[in-house]
Design brief:
- Helix content is 42%, strand content 19%.
- The chain contains 14 helices and twelve strands.
- α1 runs parallel beside α8.
- The protein is flat, with a radius of gyration of 23 Å.
């Protein structure tokens, strides 16, 4: 099950530097000019989770396999992208293929790095990108309305439902508000997502600050945090420059570097975790002598579908799951202790898997 988070922003805000650090590669250029990233770069990153190592220690697992999240480095958008400016159509299509957006915002001043708008104003930058996404969406949904209305008059049930959603989005978009603010029920969510609206995707603001502000942020990042709070979104502070330097160090040297710059962990850990939560994902574990492994599922996933993430046969032949809460597994020193204490539960097809569950699936061949 793959989940993609697209890294977007204006040119020269640190997107590619951040991507390079995330994937610990130099695949994406980070040159000081617009459109240095012409094709999207894709990289899988491990989701930091201290629980996995603890489980592995208790079980004596030979191998630790974290769950992963895909980040896509998308070339810089500019004003007019919705009309094709700056290779806009291509870039907007790349965003459409992602499940969520990590919006990198420049929150530092540096005379050596040009800003495409000629000034440092993170909130204005956010509005530039958001406007282009909304304009592209407005054009998209307005083109669909006539056909949907025609089908709805012919009593096409799906067309009626889709038209209702489209009209809700149109009201917002015409008011200059993103489609993600539309009130959508759980039953409507799948159809809503199928509209493929750019401004409907959940957004994480990544405030790229200078090195001195990496721990607590600065006045620019505070503006972004205030904006995020208004939207019910999340903002994370990082210094892409520091993260790129940490990424190339051997693991044993990274802690010393972090200590020297006053950080307790890489800022990218916060970005990855925030992206994971943004997508509405949770983690369950399978643990044994061979390996301790983390698996990604969406919130509210039932046990058979969770089993299907490992293998489709597990879902088809699902009988039950032997389930231990993470806290019980750790406090009772493993499966045997949890079983003896009555903390190993047998759960059936209707069980909704909780974040941190340690599972062992029983299935019929």
């Amino acid at each position: 099950m793959g989940f993609k988070c697209g890294i977007v922003g204006l040119p020269n805000v640190g997107k590619s530097t951040l991507f390079n650090a995330l994937t610990q590669t130099a695949a994406a250029q980070a040159a000081n000019y617009p459109f240095c990233t012409i094709e999207p770069n894709v990289g899988d990153v491990a989701v930091p989770d201290d629980r996995l190592e603890k489980l592995a220690q208790i079980a004596g697992s030979k191998e630790i396999i974290p769950t992963r999240l895909t980040f896509v480095d998308i070339a810089g958008l500019v004003r007019g992208a919705s009309k094709g400016e700056g290779l806009g159509n291509q870039f907007l299509a790349n965003i459409r293929e992602c499940d969520a957006i990590a919006h990198v915002v420049r929150c530092f001043e540096d005379g050596d790095i040009t800003h495409v708008e000629g000034k440092i104003d993170p909130v204005a930058d956010i509005e530039t990108i958001e406007t282009e996404l909304m304009l592209a969406d407005l054009d998209s949904v307005e083109k669909r309305v006539i056909n949907l209305e025609k089908r709805a008059k012919q009593n096409d049930k799906e067309a009626k439902e889709t038209l209702d959603l489209v009209n809700r989005c149109l009201v917002l978009l015409r008011e200059g508000k993103p489609a993600r603010l539309a009130e959508v029920s759980a039953d409507e969510r799948k159809l809503f997502n199928s509209l493929g609206l750019l401004s409907s995707k959940p957004v994480l603001y990544v405030c790229n600050v200078e090195e001195a502000s990496a721990e607590n942020g600065n006045a620019f990042s505070e503006q972004v945090a205030a904006r995020a709070k208004e939207e019910g979104a999340v903002a994370v502070v990082v210094s892409a420059k520091i993260e790129s330097e940490i990424a190339v160090l051997p693991l044993e040297d990274q802690k010393d570097y972090l200590d020297a710059v006053g950080l307790t962990e890489p800022g990218l850990n916060r970005v990855i975790r925030a992206g994971y939560l943004l997508l509405g994902l949770v983690t369950y574990f399978t643990v044994g002598p061979k390996e301790a492994r983390a698996w990604t599922i969406e919130k509210s996933t039932k046990a058979p579908q969770a089993a299907g993430v490992i293998h489709t046969d597990f879902e088809k032949g699902f009988i039950r799951s032997e389930t231990i809460a993470y806290e019980d597994y750790v406090s009772l020193k493993g499966e045997a202790g949890a079983r003896d204490a009555g903390k190993l539960r047998l759960e059936g097809k209707e069980y909704v898997v909780a974040d941190g569950d340690v599972l062992h699936f029983r299935f019929a061949n």
